[in-house]
Amino acid sequence: ESDTASEISFQFHRHKKTPSVGSHSSDMASVSSVSGSVLSVYSGDFGSVDAQGTVEFALDYDEKNREFQVHVSQCKDLAVVDEKKGRSDPYVKTYLLPDKARMGKRKTSVKKRTVNPIYNEVLRYKIEKMVLLIQKLNLSVWHNDPLGRNSFLGEIEIDLASWDWSNRKLNWYPLKPRSLSAVNGVDHRGVMSLSIKYVPPGSLGKWPKNPPSGEVHIWVKDVKDLLQLRPSGVDSFVKCYVLPDTSKKSYQKTRVIKRDTNPVFNHTIVYDGFHTEDLKDACVELTVWDHEKLTNHFLGGIRLGLGTGLSYGISVDWMDSTQEEVAFWQEMMLAANEWIEGLLPLRSL
């Protein structure tokens, strides 16, 4: 079994962990996914026009149909692209960031010879609400050129996690120059739901000590909105290592869930041999892979640890947990014998 993305090869065996595997659950029905465009947010930008003017739109989420809706009303006082003819042929384009390719672009019709276009169109995305809330909406206005030499006229970017969803009214927003996040955004790879628990040595009984050494319990529940690599979906499984140990004793994996971009694993792994002080230097790495006969494709992962960059005094690149991952691990360390629930975005490793 080989993988298209390299695995961690750091070897350090001061504290080896012994795994034991828990129960599995039944499969979940396949969920269809929206195909996306692989074009860049700024593809075809040949213009050098300064952003100006405003755009009027409203946002809404249809709970019944699980659909995100962008109501594009109109624009005012846009920049003039063709100064000789005094004209612009504008249209509005939207992406969900950071993964602009995953959900694809949506765009309105082109309105010719106007800097005050009226659209009254709705751009729609089929997406789960909890996935939507970790994204940003990038809405940009463009001049359409017959030869494909489109010109950027301005944009607005909105963090959907902080958006007031009770506000369904049309509002005006000033168009701004390009944002760095739209250009350099990291792909959204899905969201993992899991729980973790630390059981300290001897905490479950006096004699004989139960457990004789500390245990870390990892309950991988499900993953939402995985990247769809084939029309039939994705055949995914989860790998787990407790770094710095990358031996076969540390390696565990779930079963493969076929043709499902929202797989339910319900898989529990227990690692023993943990002392409380090990929690500062160890890192639980969970990675999701698409299974194929000849090679597996990396889809995304998380690393649970303190993110200090050090393990037992040695500098390592895998101690790079995000703020969310660090907070999740710290909460486990502070609440012995309690399950800590989390919902963490998958990322490149």
Describe the structure.
The strands form 5 sheets. Strands 1-14-11-10-19 form a 5-stranded antiparallel β-sheet, with helices on one face. A 4-stranded antiparallel β-sheet has the order 6-3-2-9, with no helix packed on it. Strands 5-4-7-8 form a 4-stranded antiparallel β-sheet. The radius of gyration is 24 Å and the shape is elongated. The protein is built from 4 helices and 19 strands. It has helices at about 100-105, 130, 180-185, 325-335; strands spanning about 20, 55-60, 65-75, 90-95, 105, 120-125, 135-145, 150-160, 170-175, 190-200, 215-225, 235-245, 250-255, 265-275, 285-290, 295-305, 310, 315, 340-345. Strand 7 and strand 8 (about 150-160) form a beta hairpin. By secondary structure, the chain is mostly beta strands. The chain folds into 2 domains: about 40-180, Sandwich (Immunoglobulin-like), CATH 2.60.40; about 190-345, Immunoglobulin-like. This is Synaptotagmin-like protein 2.
How are the SSEs placed, and which strands pair?
Elements: E1 18-21, E2 54-62, E3 67-76, E4 90-97, H1 100-103, E5 106-107, E6 118-126, H2 129-132, E7 136-143, E8 151-159, E9 171-174, H3 180-184, E10 191-199, E11 214-224, E12 236-243, E13 252-253, E14 264-274, E15 283-290, E16 297-304, E17 310-311, E18 314-315, H4 323-334, E19 340-345
